Structure formats: structure tokens, C-alpha cells
From TrEMBL:
It comes from the Bacteria. Residues 1-118 form the Gfo/Idh/MocA-like oxidoreductase N-terminal domain. Residues 129-251 form the GFO/IDH/MocA-like oxidoreductase domain. One of its GO terms (molecular function) is nucleotide binding. InterPro entries: Gfo/Idh/MocA-like_OxRdtase_N (IPR000683), Gfo/Idh/MocA_oxidoreduct (IPR051317), GFO_IDH_MocA-like_dom (IPR055170), NAD(P)-bd_dom_sf (IPR036291). Coiled coil: none annotated. It comes from Donghicola tyrosinivorans. This is Putative dehydrogenase.
Length: 339
């Protein structure tokens, strides 16, 4: 599978390393408007053609997949450009600026018959995956309550300065993954109620969000996110879980400790992610999930299946983000069906 990557910034480095770890995948073209960033990526993927203009790269072709790792404002034009050139597409989260753009992007790729996956990688973290597998296997019976919690004081702004500048921050940037984990565990939500706060005066958007979801299958979940939480140990970038089912409970605690209790019996597992050779702590958790999601994409194409985090699926995650902001702004519960 020949891959072209657009956007060679902070996060794309993980995706480039991830592709190197996938048998049969090869990055053959790279594009970034910034020649310095392009040069760094070019060193990592020697032999790949380099471009500062995405349209020129697309016109030259010679690849099966475009992997878009730019920030959100360029996602719609780049996804539509890729669709025009009839290639499979991966696009980073947040998928779009708004729900109507997101729907148009899904339709554009669907019309070509090619595959579209959103790089919504937290549900692919191995610790989260271990919890999802336990829940899906029925280990704790039918879940009725879940809490998915991401609370940190880690400085994400030094690596990603744009996060301090947007009107929206934590729900759009990070909450999107945590809401997606809630969907992976409990299915689609029908209603959401959210509150937001900004604690850090140096940023523009909200850095705390607390969300209450009702899922179609009957589960109530609490999704809480904060980048204003100063505590020891710092758990970035771990998402912690508490899930109650009618037969037992599951906890994913700090330090990647997974506990399942059923009928008075307890199973405790260390589900720490490996530190891949190119990865570094504390990002190794996310970095491993990048390689896993990219492998999933390759496997789905080979099998002719839709990725679990397809563009169409991601519309539900994206709608939760939009609904959470609407709920917080208007101090009311939002029905997802109304969007
Ligand atoms: P960045 O600003 O460091 O890099 C983006 C790069 O894209 C820049 O080098 C820029 O020059 C280039 N670019 C922008 N528009 C372009 C265009 N039209 N043509 C060619 N190049 C273009 O941003 P980043 O921190 O790497 O974030 C990129 C995306 O990855 C964001 O959507 C962000 O939310 C996402 N991200 C995801 C995770 C995750 O865990 N999934 C983590 C961090 C960032
Ligand atoms: O951009 C974010 C993401 O997707 O994962 C963590 C992050 O880098 C900072 O919140």
C-alpha cells in the first residue's frame, strides 16, 4: 500500500513512524507548506517525493492512500481533493470545523467507493482496547454506568501552540477522543448535558468539561476532561475508566491497572502499553495506538471492510462534540437526533 502524507508537523511524526512499522505499507510522497518541516519528514522517509503543494502532489499521484495530518481548518478541502483523485483517505481528528462540513466530507469520499477513516486513535490504545474487549465479551454483564475520565495538568501547549488560541479547546481537541471511547464501550448516545470552564487564564478556550450522556442501549456515562488538574502522579495521557455492569465491575486505574470484579472474585492485569522503539514516555500510549489504528486501516482495506472509526461512524462522535458545546452554551440537555 503506497501512502501520501499531507501535513508533516508535530503529530505526523508519529504517523510516519507508525507506517514504517506496518508490513506492506510505504510512504511514497510527503507534503507540507513549510519546507523545514517537509525536510525533517523527508529524512525520516528517505526516497519519498516531497511537495509544498497538495494539489501538485495529488496531480502526480502514484499512491493508494492519502493520510491527512494537518490541523482542522484544512481538512475539508484536503479530503475533497483526495476524493477528486479517487484514493482512500485517513483524516486526523477533529475531522471537521462543523457537522455539515463533516457530512459533506463523508459523502464526498462515499461517492468514490473508497474508504475514509478518521484518525480517532484513543479507542485504539491497548489499555482501552483491553477494557473494551472485556465489556464486549460480557465479562461484567450488561453495563449500566460508565465514567471515562481524563484529568491532567500536562503542558500540551508547548508542542501544540494552536490549542491555546482557539475559541474551543478541550472538548474539540481531547474530549472528542474520550467521547469516542464512550461510544466504543456503550454505543451511540441519544442525549448529552455538558458544562465547561476555563481555568487557565493564558488560553482562549475551555480547559474543563463535564458531560453526562444517555446511551441508546440504556447506559448512563459521565465523560469528564480537564487540563487544569494538578495532581501527582500526573497521568497524561491516560483515560481512566469505571464501569458497572449487572454482573460485576471494571476499573482501569492510573498506571494502566485493569481490574475486573465478578461474584466476589477479582482479576487484576497490568495493561501497560509497550514503548515502541521510536516512542517516548509519556506519549508511548498514544504513539502505540497510532500504529494500531493505521494497521486496522490497512487490514480493513485488504478485507474490504469499513474501519471501526470510519468517517460515517465518526459523524456520531463529532455530533457529540457539537452537542456538548451547544448544551454548555444554552445550559440544556441536547438530543443528538436534533442536530
Ligand atoms: P502542526 O501545526 O504541528 O502540523 C500541521 C502541519 O500541517 C504544519 O506543518 C502545516 O504547515 C501543515 N499544513 C497545514 N495545512 C496544509 C496544507 N493545506 N497543505 C500542506 N501542509 C499543510 O499540527 P499537529 O499538532 O501535528 O496536529 C495535526 C492534527 O493532528 C490536528 O488535527 C490535531 O488535532 C491532531 N492531533 C492528534 C493527536 C492524536 O492523538 N490523534 C495528537 C496531537 C494532534
Ligand atoms: O491534540 C490532542 C490529542 O489528540 O491527544 C492529546 C493531544 O495531543 C493534546 O490534547
Amino acid at each position: 500500500m503506497k501512502i501520501a502524507v499531507i501535513g508533516c508537523g508535530f503529530f505526523a511524526m508519529n504517523q510516519l513512524h507508525g507506517w514504517k512499522g506496518i508490513k506492506g505499507a510505504e510512504v511514497v510522497a510527503l507534503c507540507d507548506r513549510d519546507p523545514a518541516r517537509l525536510a525533517v519528514a523527508g529524512k525520516l522517509c528517505s526516497g519519498a517525493r516531497t511537495y509544498t503543494d497538495a494539489a501538485a502532489m495529488m496531480a502526480d499521484g502514484g499512491f493508494d492512500v492519502v493520510d491527512i495530518a494537518t490541523t482542522v481548518s484544512s481538512h475539508r478541502p484536503l479530503v475533497e481533493l483526495a476524493a477528486k483523485h479517487n484514493v482512500h483517505v485517513i483524516c486526523q481528528k477533529p475531522f471537521a470545523l462543523n457537522l455539515s462540513d463533516a457530512r459533506a466530507m463523508v459523502n464526498a469520499v462515499a461517492a468514490t467507493g473508497k474508504t475514509l477513516m478518521v484518525h480517532e486513535n484513543f479507542r485504539w490504545q491497548s489499555a482501552i482496547r483491553a477494557a473494551i474487549d472485556e465489556v464486549r465479551s460480557g465479562a461484567i454483564g450488561t453495563p449500566f454506568f460508565g465514567r471515562i475520565s481524563f484529568r491532567s495538568g500536562y503542558d500540551v501547549f508547548s508542542g501544540q501552540p494552536y490549542l491555546a488560541e482557539g475559541e474551543r479547546f478541550i472538548i474539540e481537541d481531547l474530549g472528542i477522543h474520550i467521547l469516542d471511547i464512550a461510544r466504543a464501550l456503550f454505543g451511540d448516545a441519544t442525549r448529552i448535558t455538558a458544562t465547561t470552564r476555563r481555568i487557565n487564564p493564558a488560553i482562549k478556550g475551555e480547559d474543563v468539561a463535564t458531560m453526562l450522556l444517555e446511551h441508546g442501549g440504556g447506559v448512563t456515562s459521565v465523560v469528564d476532561c480537564s487540563y487544569a488538574t494538578r495532581r501527582v502522579p500526573e497521568t497524561f495521557p491516560e483515560s481512566l475508566l469505571e464501569i458497572d455492569g449487572d454482573k460485576g465491575t471494571l476499573r482501569l486505574d492510573a498506571g494502566y491497572r485493569l481490574t475486573v470484579q465478578v461474584d466476589g472474585e477479582e482479576r487484576v492485569r497490568d495493561v501497560s502499553p509497550p514503548v515502541l522503539p521510536w516512542a517516548e514516555r509519556p506519549w508511548h500510549n498514544i504513539q502505540e495506538s497510532v500504529q494500531i489504528i493505521q494497521q486496522h486501516f490497512v487490514d480493513c482495506i485488504a478485507r474490504g471492510e469499513q474501519p471501526e472509526t470510519s468517517g460515517a461512524d465518526n459523524l456520531q462522535t463529532f455530533a457529540l462534540v457539537e452537542a456538548a458545546y451547544l448544551s454548555a452554551r444554552e445550559h440544556r440537555t441536547v438530543e443528538l437526533a436534533s442536530l
